[in-house]
């Protein structure tokens, strides 16, 4: 594993504290949900708060195989548009009601 710069290590410690996990859990292979969410959040913070390191650098700091793990983390954590988060039910649609009433 490549040495982690002090600024990145500080971001990792702060994120680990916020998520109530150990900093070692962020770079471990653990797949526990709490560790994964903390790791994803730490990767997002590193990307946002540091001078734009490459995805490969972030992957190396977090002991990941390649940059695609970081891409997945960034896509998973970033907020989605409201339309993507809204759950639509069939009964919310006016056309559903018209179809239901039209049945014999």
* Mean of residue pLDDT values: 82
Order of helices and strands: HHHHHHH
Q: Using the 3D structure, state the CATH architecture.
A: Orthogonal Bundle
How many domains? The number is 1
Helix content: 55-70%
CATH class: Mainly Alpha
| Residues in β-strands, percent | under 5%
**CATH third-tier fold name:** Chromosomal Replication Initiator Protein Dnaa, Chain: A
Low-confidence stretches: none
Choose one word for the global shape.
Answer: elongated
Distance between the termini: 69 Å
CATH H-level superfamily? DnaA protein, C-terminal DNA-binding domain
Largest sheet: none
Secondary structure tally, helices:
7
Number of strands: 0
Q: Helices and strands: which structural class?
A: mainly alpha
Using only CA atoms, what is the Rg? 20 Å
What does this structure look like?
The protein is an all-alpha fold. The protein has a single domain (6-85), classed as DnaA protein, C-terminal DNA-binding domain (Chromosomal Replication Initiator Protein Dnaa, Chain: A), CATH 1.10.1750.10. Helix content is 64%, strand content 0%. It contains seven helices and no strands. It has helices at 6-19, 23-27, 33-49, 55-61, 67-77, 82-85, 94-102. Helix 3 packs across helix 5 (67-77) and helix 4 packs across helix 5 (67-77). The radius of gyration is 20 Å and the shape is elongated.
């Amino acid at each position: 594993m490549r040495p982690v710069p002090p600024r990145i290590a500080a971001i990792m410690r702060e994120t680990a504290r916020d998520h109530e996990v150990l900093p070692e859990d962020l770079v471990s292979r653990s797949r526990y949900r709490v560790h994964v969410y903390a790791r994803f959040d730490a990767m997002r913070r590193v990307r946002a708060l540091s001078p734009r390191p490459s995805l490969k650098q972030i992957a190396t700091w977090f002991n990941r195989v390649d940059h695609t793990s970081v891409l997945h983390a960034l896509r998973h954590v970033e907020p989605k548009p409201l339309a993507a988060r809204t759950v639509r039910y069939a009964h919310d649609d006016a056309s559903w009601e018209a179809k239901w009433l039209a049945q014999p």
